[in-house]
Design brief:
Length: about 230
């Protein structure tokens, strides 16, 4: 059965990897119900879970990155690879899941969590310098990227309360094959895959704009020279 193992909220702390900044990447499980609601546009620091927020306003937060989910099974793989304990929330995820194929989820897929909340898969997580510093592992961004198990950002379609132990049920899957993993690989190490993402209209608008530009440039570059 697919369930939430934990619901995790950030503990603000100084960000030693960005001078003068604060980070909320240190997410920890909380007991009891947590309210979930759409936070509004990026730029305010608001996210989907009550009591949480982001501090890099330019790159994180807002409706398209309201909630971040990562699979407990993947954390266990990383724990074995790195030889260290991986607590729920260690990747900065709001939801640590069990029995959910987070990276295999399709962009635009809907999850019902508990009796009320409905979330929509929007895009993969792209690793940043704060993540590198937080993990304190040499070459971490490269290793995370090469593994292509990024976890998923989700939008809030229907607000409500969630808690650890709630069931996660996929209630809708779109009619395309663009998974979180595929989108991540296309956006990072395999740009030849970018044209395949154009059918996934649930991707964030800014991502789709960037992808269309890159695809258009690539097609121009591939044109044979004029005779």
């Amino acid at each position: 059965m697919a369930v939430l193992e934990s619901v995790n909220v950030g503990v603000p702390r100084d960000n030693p990897w960005q001078a003068g900044a604060v980070t909320g990447i240190d997410k920890r499980p909380v007991a009891g119900a947590v309210a979930v609601a759409a936070p509004g546009p990026k730029g305010t620091g608001a996210v989907g879970l009550a009591g949480d927020r982001v501090h890099d306003l330019a790159h994180h937060g807002g409706d398209d990155q309201a909630v971040y989910a990562y699979a407990r099974e993947e954390l266990d793989v990383w724990a074995e690879r790195l030889g260290r304990r991986m607590n729920d929330g260690v990747f900065g995820e709001n939801l640590t899941t069990v029995g959910v194929d987070v990276d295999g989820a399709l962009v635009g897929e809907h999850w019902r969590i508990g009796p009320d909340v409905v979330l929509e898969v929007s895009c993969p997580r792209i690793p940043c310098g704060t993540f590198q510093g937080w993990m304190a592992e040499a070459g971490w961004i490269r290793r995370f990227t090469e593994a292509a198990r990024p976890g998923a950002y989700l939008r809030v379609l229907v607000p409500g309360d969630i808690r650890a132990g709630d069931r996660v049920v996929v209630t809708h899957r779109p009619d395309h094959d663009v998974s979180v993993e595929l989108a991540f690989r296309a956006m990072t190490t395999e740009p030849d895959l970018l044209p395949r993402l154009l059918v996934a209209d649930a991707l964030p608008a800014e991502d789709l704009t960037r992808i269309r530009r890159r695809v258009a440039r690539s097609r121009v570059d591939q044109r044979p020279p004029a005779r």
